[in-house]
């Protein structure tokens, strides 16, 4: 009974911590909003599916001890610069496609990343996602692992359900909003999302250079 209560505590606390992070605006949320307006509600859950697969892989690597290797200024700086380039490129692609986008076109006509791969790439392009995992995330994983495999499983399920719940809600709200906005408003909406991605890219690039200089 005591173990059950501990596992439920790990699950609930993991859920709340992950939800607080999911609520913060970032590249993954921005891309989800833009693609949900293009393709509909299903984009959000599929993006989180890709995000969740990536996090599961990283979780396994952290348990194997890779966290101490990654958490070095030189490596984190290079990761930040690579992520900055990806974000800027994705923002530019979204900006150029916004001119021709229409609310009524078919998803098959959209020449962008598939939602599953977007979940992986957008997560990798955000250096703060990796920083969270090799610091707070690693500590939480090590704590949960004290209670065996079930401790890690309950941690992961709580974590990913928070992301899935929030991003699905956002995706549904945006998809339903398509019924009430014109193509002109939609174009402006896409441009704003694209600019946010490029701004994130510039900021992460600055942080990457700063980290490398101080390494």
TrEMBL record:
Q: Which Pfam families match?
A: LysE (PF01810)
Q: List the InterPro entries.
A: LeuE-type
List GO BP terms, alphabetically: amino acid transport
Record keywords = Cell membrane, Membrane, Transmembrane, Transmembrane helix
**Signal peptide start and end residues:** none
Name the GO cellular-component terms: plasma membrane
How is this protein positioned relative to the membrane? Multi-pass membrane protein
Chain ranges passing through the membrane: 6-29, 41-68, 74-95, 116-143, 149-174, 186-206
The entry's localization annotation reads:
Cell membrane
Q: Please report the name of this protein according to its UniProt entry.
A: Lysine exporter protein (LYSE/YGGA)
State the organism of origin: Desulfobacca acetoxidans (strain ATCC 700848 / DSM 11109 / ASRB2)
């Amino acid at each position: 009974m005591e173990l059950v209560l501990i596992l439920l505590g790990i699950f609930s606390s993991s859920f709340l911590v992950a939800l607080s992070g999911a609520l913060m605006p970032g590249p993954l949320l921005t891309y989800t909003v833009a693609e949900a307006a293009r393709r509909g509600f299903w984009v959000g859950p599929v993006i989180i599916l890709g995000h969740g697969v990536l996090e599961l892989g990283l979780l396994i690597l952290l348990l194997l001890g890779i966290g101490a290797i990654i958490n070095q200024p030189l490596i984190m700086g290079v990761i930040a610069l690579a992520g900055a380039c990806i974000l800027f490129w994705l923002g530019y692609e979204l900006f150029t496609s916004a001119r021709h986008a229409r609310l009524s076109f078919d998803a098959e006509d959209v020449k962008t990343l598939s939602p599953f791969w977007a979940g992986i790439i957008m997560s990798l392009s955000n250096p703060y996602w990796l920083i969270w995992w090799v610091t707070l995330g690693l500590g939480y994983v090590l704590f949960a692992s004290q209670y065996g495999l079930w401790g890690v499983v309950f941690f992961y399920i709580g974590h990913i359900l928070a992301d899935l719940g929030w991003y699905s809600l956002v995706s549904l709200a945006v998809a339903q909003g398509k019924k009430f906005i014109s193509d002109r408003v939609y174009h402006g909406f896409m441009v704003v999302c694209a600019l946010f991605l490029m701004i994130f890219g510039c900021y992460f690039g600055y942080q990457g250079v700063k980290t490398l200089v101080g390494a």
